[in-house]
Amino acid sequence: MNTLTVSRAARALDTVRTADRQSQTPLLDRVAMRVALALLLWSTRPRLPKSSFADLARRERRMAEVERERAWLLLQNLTLR
Q1: Any idea where the domains of the chain sit in the sequence?
Q2: If 51 and its partner were Cys, which of 4, 19, 55, 69 is the partner (CB 3.0–4.6 Å)?
Q3: CA–CA gap between residue 65 and residue 72 (Å, rounded)
């Protein structure tokens, strides 16, 4: 079998097939693809975990504890003078 003949025939079919295709994607398709890409990127963004009530209570207790320590240290510094 002659490979030159096959490649010429395949090339001729390929040019015929691409000649009737549109050179530019329709505007509606481009908009749809941009919206789809934006939604895909938005849906895969990293998220911060939601704080539970226990986490908030623990944070509140820790803040109160730090405030008490600061007040105690301030009181000690004032009494030493």
Answers
A1: 52-81
A2: 55
A3: 11
Q: Is the pLDDT of residue 15 over 80?
A: no
What is the per-residue pLDDT for 13? 59
Contacts of 25 (CB under 8 A, 6+ apart): 33
Tokens read off for 48: 């911060």
Residue type at 69?
A: E
| Distance set, CA 37 to CA 27, 49, 51, 70, 79 (Å) | 15, 24, 30, 51, 65
CA distance 69 to 74: 9
Compute the distance between CA of residue 66 and CA of residue 58 in angstroms, rounded to an integer: 12
Distance CA 62, CA 26 (A): 59
Spatial distance between the Cα atoms of 81 and 42, rounded to a whole number of angstroms: 59
pLDDT band at 11 (very low <50, low <70, confident <90, very high): low
